[in-house]
Every structure is written in C-alpha cells, then in structure tokens.
Amino acid sequence: RAAALGRTFWRGALEAMGAPGDVPACLADLRSRGILLRRSPSRIVGDEEFVFKHALLRDVAYSRIGRDERAALHAAAAAWYDGLPAADEHLDARAEHHERAGDDRRAGDLRAMAAARAVAARSDREAQVHFRAALNLLGDLPGHDIAPLTEGLADSLVRTGDWHAALALYAEMRLGVDDPGREAELRRKEAGAHDAHGAFEDALDALDEAEAAGP
C-alpha cells in the first residue's frame, strides 16, 4: 500500500486503505531496518509522513503488485486524498491516482483544475503541462467539451512566447466553429499572437478576417 501511494506516504492513508496488522508497529519496524524515514513536520496536519529511504526500494515493492490490485489500491489512495480537508492542495497526486485507477474523466478534470490554478499563479509552464495532460485524458471521452482546455493552452503558449504552437491551436479550433462571433474572437487572438512576435502584417490580416467574420 505504501508503494502504491508513492515514495512519500502517510500513516492515515495506509489505515484508510485497509493495511493489515498494527500499522504504527510495522512502520516503526521498517524505520528501524532503514527502509523508511519519518518526515517532520508532516505536510498533512495531524498525520505522520514517511518516505522510502531509497526510490529503488519503493520501485521493487510496487513491481510486485499485480495489475488488478494496483488499480484497486490507486482507487483507494484517490479516495483518501479526495477526502482530505485540504484536498485541493494535492491536485497532482489525486489526478495521478485517479488515472492509475482507470478513471480518466476524474483525472482529467483534476488536471484542468491544476491548470487553472497555475494560470492564476502566473506559472504558465506548469499550466501547460496540466493542460496537455487534461487534453490527453479527456480528448477521446464522449460528451466532454475540450475547447476551453485547448484555448487555455493556446493562450498560455502566447504568454510564454510559443506563438507558432498557439497559432496552430487557434487555427485548429476555428475549423469546427460555425458561430461568426466565436470565429472573430479566435481571429483576434491570432492577431494578438502575430503582433506579440512582430508579424505585424499577419496581425493586420487576422484583424481584417475577424472583422469580416462577425462582431
């Protein structure tokens, strides 16, 4: 169970996941044998935090878990994280466990939340990682509108100077648009991207196309 949680884990998670036996005694034994270290202060108030002393120890333990059991343990870990009072402080871990448990929709939604949080914190490189992860998870799921994620990624790419990648995404979004106002909005964003990297003629062309498309 500890290996399923990751290199770092908490006693409360092990107990919530149904670890057998005397969990505190087992953890004390593993510490005495140099397998685990206890971290203080814990990042989760009121719980004990532990870490595998060597990543290889965790990897070996994890490799011995069968595929079906892994999914069940990750689902249990996700449920524990979701139930924490400060669950939103652990979006990455929650998304990872939901994904490993096979719940791509929930994992994708959490990645989208992490992207929005990173944008608000002006951490665009981090946001782009989350946007791409969310798109990979949600892109093939029925009934899920990924346009806001695609647009959010494009907007973020403009801010970090990745204009060509942003322009490709804006153009891709325009292909499926039948609303003149929406097309005009995307054209204006393209104009902004062109203008940001000095392609002024292209920016003016995009603005002309925006005006022709609609209000």
Structure notes:
- The longest helix is centred in the middle third of the chain and has 17 residues, at 104-120.
- It contains twelve helices and three strands; from the N terminus they run αβααββααααααααα.
- The protein has helices at 2-5, 11-16, 23-32, 55-63, 67-82, 91-100, 104-120, 124-138, 147-159, 163-175, 180-196, 200-213, and strands at residues 8-10, 36-39, 49-52.
- The protein is mainly alpha-helical and 215 residues long.
- Strands 1-3-2 form a three-stranded antiparallel sheet.
Instruction: Determine the structural class based on helices, strands and strand pairing.
Output: mainly alpha
Helix content class:
55-70%
Overall morphology:
elongated
Low-confidence stretches: none
Cα-based radius of gyration, to the nearest Å: 23 Å
Helix-strand blueprint:
Blueprint: H1 2-5, E1 8-10, H2 11-16, H3 23-32, E2 36-39, E3 49-52, H4 55-63, H5 67-82, H6 91-100, H7 104-120, H8 124-138, H9 147-159, H10 163-175, H11 180-196, H12 200-213
Antiparallel strand pairs: 1-3, 2-3
Helix pairs in contact: 5-6, 6-7, 7-8, 8-9, 9-10, 10-11, 11-12
